[in-house]
Design goal:
Helix content is 37%, strand content 30%. It is of the alpha+beta class. The chain has one domain.
Amino acid sequence: MVERGEFRGKPVLIIKRSEDERYPFSFGLNKAKLILEHIEDIKKFVADNAPQGA
């Protein structure tokens, strides 16, 4: 589940596993750009470190 929000007057993206997620993952525009620039490295990290069958 993904929502848009605001933190200190700036837009943020909020990612939750479920509606009642206690500590969602959120980030702003600068971190979003950084994630997009390194998305292939992130995908490789997940592939290299995810448990077998997950």
